[in-house]
Amino acid sequence: MRTSQPKGKEPVTAAGEASAKRGYSAPALEKGIEILELFARDPGGLTISEIAQRLKRSISEVFRIIIVMERRGWLRKDPANDRYSVSYRVLDVAFRATPAHTLSNVAAPVMHQLSVDTNQSCHLVVRTGAAATVIHRQENTGAVGFGIRLGTVVDMMTSCSGHVLLAFMSEERRAAALAELPEAGAASLRRLEKQLEAVRAQGFEMQPSARVAGVTDISFPVFGFDGHVSAALTLPFLVTIDGSQRTDREETRVMLGDAARQISEGLGWLRPAFD
Questions:
Q1: CA-to-CA distance for 89 and 75, rounded, in angstroms?
Q2: Distance CA 50, CA 87 (A)
Q3: Buried b (16+ CB within 10 A) or exposed e, 5-36
Q4: How far apart are CA 150 and CA 122, in angstroms?
Q5: Is the dihedral of CA 256, 258, 264, 269 positive or negative?
Q6: I need a surface site. Which of 155, 205, 222, 251 has the fewest CB within 10 A?
Q7: What would the pLDDT profile of 200-259 be if each residue is shown by its tens digit?
């Protein structure tokens, strides 16, 4: 049976639907998002007048949005200087509403055991646009150690974690990710591609830390049930001289690889039969 379009109505095409979506507007929501993105660039906090100035909006319209966001617990005000900053509620909501929640729950006990066995800290990194972010960390159990703070943003081109995330993406996803990298010249991209080939060939990345002298970063991919890389499990290997060294660098590398594989399997990843 043939169905007919109701008289007076044109069929809705994909292009027409996309155009209609672009025409939708929610001013208050857009202002709230602008404010959150502004705080991401100024984590030290801003006053209402500073927010209005930077967003080129009136103080009155910014004030109304700020008060609502403060009431809902998304922002907090420092009574000493009247500066607003993002509360941890934002992190909590984002964490529970994204795959990072499941990823961290699966990874946490494995990372804790790895830290106990090696006396080294480790962290879990996921891609966030043109960069990558630490979403879970596990400190070492000893008195002295080196670790990366939760929420730290790392560079995809230079970091050990970034190399692993890029190397184990599908070709299409990697091309899209590389296109988003800021100020990446043709020569830099060629060098990076060559390095990523080496990472894929050996199954991990190991390089001197891009942040701290004397630390060797080691990173392995964590895969999801769909076979795509979900995260990088990274360990900043620190040599100690006080007798607390439990494993050498090679032993630690092997244990880190086993931990990444355990997390992957916990996420539903099945090891290829030819492995």
A1: 8
A2: 18
A3: eeeeeeeeeeeeeeeeeeeeeeeeeebbebbe
A4: 11
A5: positive
A6: 251
A7: 999 999 999 877 878 999 999 999 888 899 999 999 998 887 777 889 999 999 999 999
CATH 1.10.10.10 boundaries in the chain: 26-90
DSSP line for 186-248: HHHHHHHHHHHHHHHHHTSEEEE-SSSTTEEEEEEEEE-TTSSEEEEEEEEEE--SSS---S-
**Residue found under tokens 């439990």:** 246
Question: In which residue ranges of the chain is CATH 3.30.450.40 found?
Answer: 98-266
Residue 141's φ and ψ, nearest 5 degrees, are: -90, -5
**136 neighbors 104 (Cβ within 8 angstroms):** yes
Distance, CA of 140 to CA of 59 (rounded, Å): 47
For 19-55, what is each residue's pLDDT tens digit? 555 567 788 888 888 888 888 777 778 999 999 999 9
Return the structure tokens found at 142: 């000893």
CATH 1.10.10.10 fits 26-90, yes or no: yes
Place of tokens 């060559």: 194
- Model's pTM, two decimal places? 0.67
CB atoms < 10 A from the CB of 125, how many? Answer: 29
Q: Residue 199 corresponds to which tokens in the numbers above? A: 């990472």
